Amino acid sequence: MTSKAALRPHVLSLRLYGSVFLALVALTGVTVLTAQWNLGAWNIWLAMLIASAKAALVLAVFMHLWFDSKFLLLVLGGTLTFLAVFAGLTLMDLSWRATVDAQQATGLPRDERVYEYQRQHPGTPPLRPGLREPRTGETAH
């Protein structure tokens, strides 16, 4: 059974809301500033870290999780842990895909026939898999 004190609404001050708002604006400014720097593969990680800090502020103060039952924080923490694992695995996969096809940097495996055609015909538009070579005198469609 819950106590009556736990059911009482908690009122937060305007100063706290204003402080959180200013922190969110400042973190948005940091996001814009860091987007100007080329950190390579670390750009996405830094953006995700800043976005996570902003989300934590919103969850804690505006959604009142900081003042609510600690069980809800445990559930949220478990959910975010699984989300971080899956997002991290996806980001690691995407960061290593360019090694599959460094020339195209698409991350897609290349058909050997296409690679051989491009090697034999430098300067021509790339031939896509499944297309045939244009014959002499024939225009490509």
Explain what you see.
It is a single chain. Helices cover 59% and strands 0% of the residues. The protein is mainly alpha-helical. Helix 2 runs antiparallel to helix 3 (42-62). The longest helix is centred in the middle third of the chain and has 27 residues, at 70-96.
Briefly note the structural class of the backbone.
Answer: mainly alpha
Please work out how many helical segments DSSP would assign.
5
Query: In this structure, how is the largest beta sheet organized?
Result: none
Please state the overall shape, judged from the principal axes of the Cα atoms. Answer: elongated
Amount of helix: 55-70%
Strand content: under 5%
Number of strands: 0
Rg computed from alpha carbons, rounded to a whole number of angstroms? 26 Å
On the 0-100 scale, what is the average pLDDT?
78
User: Which ranges are low-confidence, i.e. pLDDT below 50, for 5 or more consecutive residues?
Assistant: none
N to C succession of SSEs: HHHHH
Q: How far do the termini sit from each other?
A: 75 Å
